[in-house]
Specification:
With 659 residues, this protein is an alpha/beta fold. It is 31% helix and 21% strand. Strands 12-13-14-15-16-17-19-20 form an eight-stranded parallel beta barrel, surrounded by five helices. Strands 2, 3, 4, 6, 9 and 11 form a six-stranded antiparallel beta sheet that branches. It binds alpha-D-galactopyranose. Alpha-D-galactopyranose binds next to loops.
């Protein structure tokens, strides 16, 4: 075991001490790079803006009616929808992929309206995507849409930014500003998180296609992370193709086969993962949120009748099957090492099922509960996931506030039921945390430790894995200062100490985002990197003093016997250097059935055991492998152990777990 050298730690601290405090809030014009379009509309600025397609009835022109500044502004009148409005086609203005841009504008509407700055693009399959970047509310007065950063990647075509409002009211725009943002690069002279923790667990991050666009973000991920979660792109709302569902229903008179596809935005991230050989956490198959209600309706429309439980079960099965199929078809070489099968099924207050309802009306309500009446859908989701997921993909139940006693009890009860049928491999602790000013953090590190210990006990007992899946820790609004960042660093360090303590039961720690400005909780600056890609004090605190542990031998995605043999040999070498394969595979307990110590129980375990029993001199088995192989725990390796492994694989028997 090696410690991070003092010199290395000192160098890191020096770099961190030199850096300025994170940029809070927005970037200001003074920081900006090359101008793309800056106009007060006294000039011909309005002519650069276009309508949004043929159905857009708006009239966009220069106006002298009460501008925000100067003599003129831009008026957008005759709108027949709130989405009608002034758009800029970025390629016409010379904007390029991978560059950060900043846009802002003053806007005014006739009466109360949210005015949004939005971005649209067309993906490789010709599908259009829209996202709101920022907004301001006007009630007849001028308001500023704040400076907003955005980027796009080469795969995004026909990228436009535009201003829209809720209603089709007249819209006025003034003092519009679009410039290149400052160009950032990552710090090359700081340790890599994934290397520091390589002997412990994977360190991951989550990213959306848009967030991945800047080159610096790609560099940051390559340097620090060895697990990637797609922020939104694999969620049902993006995987389900409504038109194709309706077409299939019409052509086949069968309403049980929802149509699934990978959108271009998902492919942007998956291509990046593939090119850089980064393993992926699949997120998420069955969830009340970001799952369109039409998926639960007779004709796949919002107005249809709710389908029966039987139909929904078939839809669920075909959906899960479809997700694994489309991924396998194009990305079979990506290591999808984990999937969240069900996300957030328990209500925070009751710790029971969520309220039945329409998620679009109230984000906490669940259409799954509406159709099933309770949480009985969960077990089916795991059953189908087990059936259709690749054998090496581990299956997780994932939730937030997972350390709250009652919710945790519900999760543990569920996990026990699923484990009894060998349907689950692990628990995902989202870990969206908060550092508070003047009081304890929520949860306190002690509280979090208790919660984790409870899960660890269950993991030990049931031979399951734990993953921290969405870690971030916000600061209070009035704590975004040096003291706050120090407190955040201490808190992160305490939380990491808890995680490290239980490292043998934890295979991945995933942060929910890269730089603070990209976080879904941006106002609390909850992540490890500032928006200029420099490391924050909390980055320093979670690597400082971490003991270096020799990384486990990772099992490549193997399909041939030859490769399996190689892996086994690699494990043997590893074991000779350290103590046992149990330690190096990250489980820390005997894992009955895992003869080749690769963290999977499959036919190769039975084959290796057969070769060992028949005294095949070329068969390589470690001491730990021998312990794992003795499934009936009678002290000898014999054909009964092989039978038990095969019955376990065929799901006819559950292997014992270590006491
Ligand atoms: C939950 C979900 C994530 C993500 C975050 C917010 O934690 O599991 O997928 O949506 O909320 O970004």
């Amino acid at each position: 075991m090696k410690r991070l050298s003092k010199t290395a730690a000192a160098a890191v601290s020096a770099v961190l001490a030199m850096q300025s405090l994170p940029l809070v809030g927005t970037i200001h014009a003074a920081d900006a790079g090359k101008e793309i379009l800056v106009t007060g509309f006294e000039d011909d600025g309005a002519s650069k803006f276009t309508k949004r397609g043929d159905d857009d009835t708006s009239v966009i022109e220069k106006s002298t009616e009460k501008p925000h500044s100067g003599d003129a502004c831009m008026s957008v009148t005759g709108r027949s929808e709130g989405w009608n409005g002034p758009a800029l086609v970025l390629s016409d203005l010379g904007c390029e992929p991978g560059v950060r841009y900043i846009a802002s504008a003053w806007v005014k509407t006739q009466w109360y309206n949210e005015c949004k700055l939005s971005l649209q693009y067309t993906d490789a399959d010709g599908e259009q995507h829209y996202s709101n970047l920022s907004k301001a509310v006007s009630q007849g007065e001028w308001v500023k849409i704040p400076d907003t950063k955005f980027s796009f990647s080469a795969d995004m075509k026909d990228v436009q930014i535009y201003i829209e409002s809720n209603d089709k009211v007249d819209l006025y725009v003034d003092d519009f500003f679009l410039t290149e943002g400052p160009s950032y690069s990552i710090q090359k002279d700081i340790p890599s998180l994934k290397d520091v923790y390589s002997g412990y667990f994977k360190v991951g991050t989550a990213v959306t296609a848009a967030e991945l666009a800047p080159n610096a973000t790609k560099d940051l991920i390559r340097k620090h992370f060895n697990s990637l979660t797609l922020g939104n792109e694999l969620k049902p709302e993006n995987m389900l193709d409504q038109k194709a569902c309706q077409k299939y229903l019409k052509e086949n008179d069968d309403n049980t086969v929802p149509q699934v596809r990978l959108q271009g935005s998902a492919k942007i991230i998956l291509d990046f993962a593939k090119e850089n050989n980064i393993p992926v956490r699949g997120h998420t198959l069955v969830w009340h949120s970001q799952t369109p209600t039409w998926f639960f309706k007779d004709d796949y429309t919002m107005d249809g009748d709710w389908v029966s439980k039987d139909v929904m079960l078939k839809r669920m099965e075909n959906y899960i099957k479809g997700v694994f199929e489309v991924i396998e078809a194009e990305y079979s070489d990506i290591d999808f090492y984990a999937w969240d099968v069900v996300n957030e099924a328990f209500d925070d207050n009751t710790a029971g099922p969520r309220n039945p309802g329409v998620y679009e009306d109230y984000r906490g309500d669940s259409a799954w509960v509406k159709v099933f009446g309770d949480n009985s859908f969960i077990k089916y989701a795991f059953k189908y996931a087990r059936q259709y997921a690749p054998a090496e993909t581990k299956l997780y139940y994932n939730d937030y506030n997972e350390y709250m006693t009652e919710k945790q009890n519900s999760i543990i009860k569920l996990v026990r039921e699923l484990a009894a049928d060998n349907l689950i491999d692990g628990i995902g602790m989202q870990s969206h945390l908060d550092v508070r000013k003047g009081s304890d953090a929520f949860p306190s590190a002690q509280h979090y430790a208790m919660g984790m210990k409870n899960f660890v006990d269950v993991a030990k007992e049931l031979n399951l894995d734990l993953q921290v899946t969405e870690l971030d820790a916000t600061l209070d609004k009035d704590y975004l200062n040096e003291t706050g960042f120090k407190t955040q660093a201490k808190y992160y360090s305490d939380i990491m100490d808890v995680i490290v303590k239980y490292k043998d039961y934890i295979s991945a720690v995933v942060f929910w985002g890269t730089t603070d400005d990209q976080s879904w909780r941006v106002e609390g600056l909850p992540l490890l990197f500032n928006e200029d890609y420099t490391a924050k004090p909390c980055f320093d605190s979670i690597i400082d003093g971490i003991e270096y542990v020799e990384p486990p031998v990772t099992t490549p995605k193997v399909t041939t016997t030859k490769a399996v043999t190689t892996t086994t040999e690699a494990v043997t070498t590893k074991e000779a250097e350290t103590t046992s394969c149990i330690l190096t595979t990250g489980y820390g307990v005997i894992r009955y059935g895992d003869t080749d110590c690769n963290n999977m129980i499959d036919v190769s375990d039975a084959v290796l055991l057969a070769r060992v029993i028949t005294e095949d001199r070329n068969a390589v088995i470690t001491d730990s492998g021998r312990k794992n192989a003795d499934c009936d725990r009678n002290g000898t390796l014999d054909p009964d152990d092989i039978t038990m492994i095969l019955r376990h694989i065929a799901k006819l028997e559950i292997l014992p777990v270590a006491e």
